[in-house]
Design goal:
Blueprint: H1 12-18, H2 23-29, E1 31-35, H3 37-45, E2 50-55, H4 57-62, H5 64-72, E3 76-79, H6 82-88, E4 97-102, H7 108-113, E5 118-122, H8 128-141, E6 145-149, H9 158-164, E7 173-177, H10 179-188, E8 192-196, E9 202-203, H11 204-210, E10 217-221, H12 230-233, E11 238-241, H13 253-269
Helix pairs in contact: 3-5, 8-9, 8-13
Length: 280
């Protein structure tokens, strides 16, 4: 493969990448930044996603396999000095690799057509770190999709992308879906919709004991500060709380999401659940 040339800090390519730190430019260009070796590797492995890669000389040598993968994916590779990477990057300590990626969200209709069995719905979630962490939890628990409602944070916010630790590239994510439409659509495909709320009438342990969680399930998670509004809770088939057995006042959003998603994943993989069990 040809050796990339050192790009000028005044290059139009650098300016175009730099402006993707702002949401309005991301939306206009339908491009976003993926920073660090893990995110760039995942982007390069996701079909037709990685457009450009900026790398310091040291990073290009250290992560030669990622640079080769980027070339193989058809991305333009630019060598850049550390000041250029720092200018493009949104992190305090850049790792020397910054990728420019195409948007990859999935239309909600396509998610429904795939008849998902485990879905995380983020309703009014505004913190990008929490959104990315929930996406990572959903991926780890084996969810088939994540839905961000129209009142939630931008999926392509750099903090969301970083907090997902590559999971953004692993599973379908729909964005901008009104919560009423999300719930109605999921129910229409036979998915039971559970609202996660600390004041919920139903207890997660009781739901597991009753054997009600083995079927297709969508969890709706609310805002970090005020949870789910009454009208959103009213859309769900049940409002479920994670029991607090100790003296903690509550759980944060990402922790509660992990508990709920893994409870569903375990129930679905048990005998009688909606997933097949693979013998060990």
């Amino acid at each position: 493969m040809p050796a990339p040339e050192l790009i000028s800090p005044r290059s139009a390519r650098v300016a175009a990448a730099r402006r993707l730190a702002k949401r309005n430019f991301r939306g206009k260009d339908r491009l976003f930044l993926a920073e660090g070796p893990q995110a760039v590797r995942e982007a390069a492995g996701h079909a037709d996603t990685l457009v450009e890669l900026f790398a310091t000389v040291d990073a290009a040598e250290r992560y030669e396999d990622i640079v080769a993968q980027a070339h193989a994916a058809g991305a333009r590779v630019h060598l850049a000095d550390e000041t250029v990477i720092a200018d493009i990057s949104t992190t305090v300590t850049p790792q020397g690799l910054v990728g420019v990626c195409r948007f990859l969200d999935t239309p909600f209709d396509e998610i429904l057509a795939a008849r998902p069995r485990l879905v995380a719905v983020l309703a009014h979630v505004r913190d990008p770190g929490n959104a990315g962490t929930v996406l990572r939890c959903a991926d780890a628990a084996g969810a088939e999709a994540v839905v961000l409602t129209d009142a939630s944070v931008d999926l392509y916010n750099p903090k969301t992308v970083r907090a997902s630790v590559g999971s953004l590239f692993h599973l379908p994510v729909a964005v901008g879906v009104p919560v009423e439409e999300a719930v109605a659509g999921l129910k229409g495909t036979g998915v039971r919709v559970l609202a996660a709320d600390g004041a919920g009438r139903d207890d997660l342990d009781d739901e597991l004991d009753k054997g009600t969680m083995g079927g297709p399930t969508a969890w709706v998670f609310g805002n970090e500060a005020w949870g789910l509004p009454e009208e959103t809770r009213g859309l769900a088939d049940a409002v479920v709380r994670v029991p607090i057995h100790g003296k903690a006042e509550s759980l944060n959003l990402a922790t509660a999401a992990a508990v709920c998603l893994y409870a569903s994943a375990r129930a679905q993989r048990a005998f009688g659940g909606c997933r097949t069990v693979t013998p060990s």
